[in-house]
């Protein structure tokens, strides 16, 4: 008996020791990263005594200008960290404005996430560490506040047009489960290389909706976040293809198949959820490729959506080869038919340095020439999530009034 008790004690000691090793208790300098100071300056730290050079890149840094194809674009900047005698590399920013920031460390030329920061987000095939500095009304929309919360579900549906079982992310507002009411729906579409997780993770869509609804600024609504890659069942790593490496360009990208299959999503939502089933209670919006999809879905189905939002939209990136080129044919004539049906809102938002601003200005010039009414918002910066969160926050309160 004593021998059994001794063996059990040794096993427990071994397990405890292993747990301590996994948790890395007491190993090396104890530092935090990121460390946000009272004035909203931030210190980033990395313990790497053997490294030769450590840098950081992120959207909290002023962007650098790069030339490509005769145009000037914003690109992420890079700064060096400084090593102290304990092998800790550090960099402290100027006081930062309230915002949700993403960043990476670069150690001897290798880009990594911040190992001292457990919060990170995937965007296509890149991982970023993330930092939220609140303090103003807009950025506080991105936080989980003490308000009633909606529910975010990952839901599978059959798409006969695509010949696949596919997945959408669905936000239902607080009280949906017990209210018995019918709700309007916003279909919210991601950009190229994204998936049905993009808006809920990078876009903070659930937090924005929770807060706007709680403040009485937005109507309670469902938000349906689709996967715009029609050849894909769901986001990478959560499909029958296993842990496939994410990539930006997938088969059937922007060649009409997604737009053709989109009514499958609407039919599924209206069969499965308590929603209002008319044009006045449906909206569609998207960023970049999702704006491209939103434009062509709406103009090919002019009786489907009463509200259309184009966020940094690729409005002129037509793909004539293969797929369903008829979707993209006669764009301006289809726009005229859409406006003849009197949509309640046609909304365009884009950054001043966005590489798609010329295409958007061309679209606006056409709308102006035809006296089509639209709402326009131009913000600082380029083709970035910082702007798309703003656009969602501005667009949503205008819906279903």
TrEMBL record:
Coiled-coil blocks: none
Keyword Disulfide bond: no
GO MF term list: acyltransferase activity, transferring groups other than amino-acyl groups
Signal peptide, first to last residue: 1-19
CDD domains referenced in this protein's UniProt entry, alphabetically: E_set_Esterase_like_N (cd11294)
Domain of life: Bacteria
Swiss-Prot/TrEMBL keywords: Signal
Native organism: Xylanibacter ruminicola
The protein, known as: Enterochelin esterase
Stored Gene3D superfamilies: alpha/beta hydrolase, Immunoglobulins
């Amino acid at each position: 008996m004593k021998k059994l008790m001794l063996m059990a004690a040794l096993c427990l000691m071994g397990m405890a020791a292993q747990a301590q090793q996994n948790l890395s208790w007491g190993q090396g300098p104890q530092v935090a990263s990121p460390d946000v100071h009272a004035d909203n300056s931030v210190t980033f730290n990395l313990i790497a005594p053997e490294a030769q050079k450590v840098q950081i890149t992120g959207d909290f840094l002023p962007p650098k200008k790069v030339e490509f194809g005769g145009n000037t674009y914003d690109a992420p900047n890079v700064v060096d960290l400084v090593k102290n005698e304990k092998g800790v590399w550090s960099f402290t920013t100027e006081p930062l404005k309230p915002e949700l920031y993403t960043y990476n460390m670069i150690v001897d030329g290798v880009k990594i996430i911040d190992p001292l920061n457990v919060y990170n987000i995937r965007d296509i095939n890149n991982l970023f560490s993330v930092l939220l500095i609140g303090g103003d009304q807009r950025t506080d929309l991105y936080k989980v506040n003490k308000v009633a919360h909606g529910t975010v579900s990952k839901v599978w549906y059959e798409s006969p047009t695509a010949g696949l079982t596919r997945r959408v992310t669905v936000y239902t507002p607080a009280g949906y489960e017990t209210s018995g009411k019918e709700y309007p729906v916003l279909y919210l579409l991601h950009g190229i290389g994204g998936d049905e997780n993009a808006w809920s993770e990078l876009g903070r869509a659930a937090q924005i909706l929770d807060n706007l609804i709680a403040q009485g600024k937005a109507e309670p609504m469902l938000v349906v976040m689709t996967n715009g890659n029609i050849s894909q069942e769901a986001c990478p790593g959560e499909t029958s293809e296993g842990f496939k490496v994410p990539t930006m360009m997938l088969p059937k990208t922007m060649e009409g198949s997604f737009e053709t299959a989109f009514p499958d999503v609407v039919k599924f939502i209206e069969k499965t959820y308590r929603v209002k089933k008319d044009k006045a209670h449906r909206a569609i919006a998207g960023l970049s490729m999702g704006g491209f999809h939103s434009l062509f879905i709406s103009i090919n189905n002019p009786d489907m959506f009463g509200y259309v939002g184009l966020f940094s939209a690729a409005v002129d990136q037509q793909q004539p080869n293969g797929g369903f080129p008829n979707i993209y044919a006669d764009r301006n004539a289809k726009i005229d038919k859409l406006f003849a049906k009197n949509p309640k809102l046609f909304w365009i938002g884009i950054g001043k340095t966005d590489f798609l601003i010329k295409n958007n200005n061309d679209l606006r010039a056409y709308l102006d020439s035809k006296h089509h009414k639209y709402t326009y918002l131009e913000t600082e910066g380029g083709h970035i999530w910082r702007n798309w969160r703003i656009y969602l926050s501005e667009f949503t309160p205008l819906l279903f009034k």
